[in-house]
Design brief:
The chain is an alpha/beta fold. It folds into two domains: 1-77 and 236-241 and 249-291, no CATH class; 100-233, no CATH class. Helices cover 18% and strands 7% of the residues. The chain has a three-stranded mixed β-sheet, sandwiched between helices. The longest helix is centred in the first third of the chain and has 22 residues, at 76-97. The protein starts with 6 loop residues before the first strand and ends with a helix. 38% of the residues are buried. InterPro entries: MetalloPept_cat_dom_sf. GO terms for molecular function: metallopeptidase activity.
């Protein structure tokens, strides 16, 4: 198919439409069972770097837009970064197709205990090697440019996307809730902790033994942050109609109505946040090394 500097789901001034590409290239008989994903350049009208991807919620269309990020395959670490960012963004956007939001069953983002590729905290940096150790909070420090961690040196975090140890996963929901009005650093991200391990939520460089209040997901409120069992709640049949007796699921799920894909092949898209300052710095550093 022909190259387009920018791509959106619906066409806008100067940008191509994913739906137009799909109509021209996908056999109509595949629409009810196949997901359609385009590896594209950018969602920005000038072709500049922006969001890494976009997808329908409970739909079958998505895109990955890393073309202007300055990613390179010229060295081992750069190649790992390229492949891992592509893989994690594909998994993230497909998660939206499977009905998942940035907080699992809610739009609330950056919850450290929601240990999922759907969470912006873990989408690009990936998951740490062990949620019970001090390294479990490194993604939080990275996102807050604290304790020596920043997007510009993302290769220094545990199981970084520059390595072959990169991890990505949907959450199994096993994390306990974190109360922002009563945070205990020794609980780390709610999946147990090894002796002496803690999450330095207030980034003061030392462990606090007592509880304190802190808005750790930066949504301007102090709330109880919950994990979510992604795997038990993936909604796969975006276009199928149930018939007959299929039994009763014992899992608690959100209810979605199957769409009639042949007559209405467009679903609401996930609301992706604009790139953060840290992400812009990362893109700049990548472009500086892609020579």
């Amino acid at each position: 198919m022909s190259y387009a500097r920018c791509l959106t789901l619906d066409s806008k001034t100067g940008c191509a439409s994913l739906y137009s590409y799909k109509s021209a290239s996908l056999d109509i008989r595949r629409k009810t069972i196949f997901h359609y994903l385009l590896m594209a350049n950018s969602q920005e009208s000038d072709g500049s770097a922006g969001s890494s991807g976009l997808a329908e919620i409970n739909g079958n269309d998505s895109m990955v837009t890393l073309g202007s990020w300055g990613l390179s395959s010229r060295s081992g670490s750069n190649a790992n970064l390229l492949l891992n960012y592509q893989a994690s963004t594909i998994m993230h956007e497909l998660g939206h197709n499977f009905s998942l939001e940035h907080g699992g069953n809610e739009p609330s983002n950056y919850k450290p205990n929601y240990y999922s590729i759907m969470n912006y905290l873990y989408q690009l940096p990936g998951l740490g090697s062990d949620p019970k150790t001090n390294s479990a909070a490194q993604r939080y420090y990275l996102n807050n440019n604290a304790l020596g961690f920043s997007w510009g040196n993302i290769c220094n975090i545990d199981a970084s996307p520059c390595s072959t140890n990169y991890k990505m996963d949907y959450s199994d929901g096993s994390g306990i809730s974190l109360n922002e009005s009563s945070l205990l650093e020794s609980a780390i991200i709610g999946r147990g902790s090894n002796n002496g391990s803690y999450a330095d939520w207030n980034t003061n460089g030392a462990q606090n033994a007592s509880v304190y209040i802190k808005d750790i997901n930066q949504d301007s409120s102090f709330s109880i942050l919950s994990d979510y069992n992604d795997w038990a709640n993936l909604y796969l049949p975006f276009a199928r109609q149930n018939t007959g007796n299929n039994g009763v699921s014992l899992l608690s799920r959100r209810v979605f109505l199957p769409s009639h894909v042949l007559s209405q092949d467009r679903q609401p898209a996930a609301i992706e946040q604009p790139p953060s300052l840290g992400l812009i710095q990362l893109i700049g550093s990548l472009k500086g090394h892609a020579k």
